[in-house]
Amino acid sequence: MDCSYFRSRLNQFVDAELGYLEVAELQGHLSFCPDCAAELAQLSEVRGALAAWGEVELGAPLGFVERVAAAALESKPGTVQLGRVVGDALDALDETLGRIPLPGGRTIPVKNLLGYGIAATAVIIQVERYLRRMRELKPS
Amino acid sequence: MPASNLHKWATLPDPTPADLTRAAAGDVDAFTTIVERYQGMVYSVAYNVLGNHTDAEDAAQEAFLRCYRKLAQYRSEATFSTWLFRLALTASVDYQRRERRRPEPVEIPDIAGGEPELGDGISAATLTAALHDLPDDYRVPTVLRDIYGLPYQEIAELTSRPLGTVKVMVHRGRASLRLRLQAERGL
Quick check: is A65 in a domain? Predict the structure, then answer.
């Protein structure tokens, strides 16, 4: 097997997604291929740098806390806002009902299905109204 | 799987139950204390996901407002910092999907505690510039995977993309970063 086969597996290797035999096969190749070994070292270095960067705490901009506090004051619990009530209800629904798996590993929240259902119903009602109106206008 | 950076934030001291109860009841002063304590964590998450300061501030503010509204739903099965960290991630990814990314020159963020050690010849400026230049489709999953150590399945759910697509995006993001960092070091 050539290097392209092994290079395509380096990401799976660092993600610990290869089986025991695949790891052994890759390590065998790396032991005598300096180019692939160098690519793995660079890949590991990038991941190491990213992980280290995740430990770094960045400073929020000046006045950030005050701006958040002012915004919180405006949206104080107890102030009824329709959008917020609907949003919170949908979030609660999402957490309760979970997600539906689709082919290809994709998942969608159940609340989206409810949304699609409502939209489809609205379209059907409009089409039905349109057809009825056409029938009424048709000369007998 | 990389070690998750969730563990770092999970060690931040949680607010006292009394503070949480007061904030959940709408006490803005108690809530402000929470914002002061966790602003660095939430802002860092938003900056890393969004790649610029303007969007990061908006998303971080949105994360704290969600926290304010949902505090009554917080249960202590997870530490407060872990719960807030998840809220910050979700708010940032939602913001990225909803808003068009604002073009902004790379500006080195203020780092608490001085220049970090990221590896041989890799500076914070180099890494943030390389991340900034990645297309959103590559940067967001790569950040979630390699900076925050999220499982691929969770990234797929957060970003509403198929699992296979997410993996390809992370692989391409890593490849772009690798080539960029190599070029910067003149290797």
Answer: no
Q: Which of B28, B33, B89 to mutate to test the interface with A (most CBs of A within 10 A)?
A: B28
For B24, which residue in chain A has the nearest alpha carbon? A77
The CATH number of the domain covering residues in B117-187:
1.10.10.10
Q: Is B183 on the interface with A (CB under 8 A)?
A: no
Give yes or no: residues A7 and A48 share one domain: yes
For A19, the domain range is: 3-54
Q: Which of B31, B32, B43 sits opposite A58 (nearest CB)?
A: B43
Chain A contact for B6, CB < 8 A?
A: no
- Is the Cβ–Cβ distance between B88 and B57 less than 8 Å? no
Cα–Cα distance measured from residue B118 to residue A49, given in angstroms and rounded to the nearest whole number: 5
Give CATH for domain B1-102: 1.10.1740.10
- B42-90, pLDDT tens digit by residue? 999 999 999 888 899 999 999 999 999 888 888 777 788 888 999 999 9
- Spatial distance between the Cα atoms of B156 and B140, rounded to a whole number of angstroms: 11
ipTM of the complex: 0.82
**Residue B89: exposed, middle, or buried by beta-carbon count in 10 A (0-12, 13-18, 19+)?**
buried
